[in-house]
Automatic annotation (TrEMBL):
Residues 201-275 form the GHMP kinase C-terminal domain. GO terms for cellular component: cytoplasm. Pathway: Amino-acid biosynthesis; L-threonine biosynthesis; L-threonine from L-aspartate: step 4/5. NCBIfam families: thrB. GO terms for biological process: threonine biosynthetic process. ATP binds at residues 84-94. The keyword Transferase applies. This is Homoserine kinase.
Amino acid sequence: MRICVPATSANLGPGFDTLGLAISLHNQVSIKPSKFHSVSLKGEGANNPVLKDNNMFIAIFNDFYQNLSNKKRHFRFEFANDIPLSRGLGSSSAVIVSAIASAYAIEGIEIDKDKLLNLALAYESHPDNITPAVMGGFNVATVQDNEVKYIRKNMPKTLKAVVVIPNRPISTQLARKALPFKYSKEDAVFNISHSSLLTAAFMSEDWDTLKLASQDKIHQKYRMKQMPELFDVQKTALKCGALMSTLSGSGSTLFTICLNEDAQRVEKELKNKFPHFKVLTRDFDNDGVTVEY
Ligand SMILES: Nc1ncnc2c1ncn2[C@@H]1O[C@H](COP(=O)(O)OP(=O)(O)OP(=O)(O)O)[C@@H](O)[C@H]1O
Ligand SMILES: N[C@@H](CCO)C(=O)O
């Protein structure tokens, strides 16, 4: 059995804890019954011994498996990870969502995606990464009475994501602590209006509005100050014709949307100017988490 889950970019500038979309960059795990518990890791995190011995995926999987099954079984877990850890591309959401989906799948119990999403909420209280990780596409999400309420839309094939991934991680927990405790009414109104406009632009495919609408006053500058080169990455991407360029989640990745015909040029320019960062161009993912038996 194989589970595949996409990377996600949250916030999209002004939509703090609300907006997110899925990118075709995936973690896969294949799980087989086995005589002994064993783990193999390929790709991102492969050199991190903690991920083998104290793996968040296995802890969540076991929680659910023990509740769902009355058998005691051991498994072999084979992870192939393309989502970098703590870079703002939703690695923790990918782990949470795929671990829950795996426990249900291995027991042959069908789980609908809305239920999966609400179970994932217990592990990550803001819904902007877990919603696109489960559903794929562009999502607007909020939480009410412990349930995620969301509206989604497929991303078109005419756009690409260009991501610039620094070699330094930023933990979401610490990046949340770096934010001010209070905001002015002006900043709050600025973000409400821009986030609303950005949502309308995605829903109506009005790509020319993305650049203006993706401005933010709530989190980006406070976080990007800790890696000031990111301001230059953002400026470069926009100057080369990107439709928008925002801090991905809590960072450190800078996420950019381009028209297909501009993506190669933007990627090349970013690679030339920031050779110490990893630059990738990807399609968007409209499937969310998938299970293959
Ligand atoms: N492939 C993985 N296997 C096991 N644990 C993982 C894996 N990927 C991430 N994690 C766990 O998630 C943590 C990273 O979560 P964090 O929220 O800081 O970053 P992120 O989810 O990549 O970023 P963001 O939420 O801003 O998109 C890691 O420290 C690790 O504990
Ligand atoms: N909305 C979250 C995304 C990262 O998990 C934040 O910016 O902290």
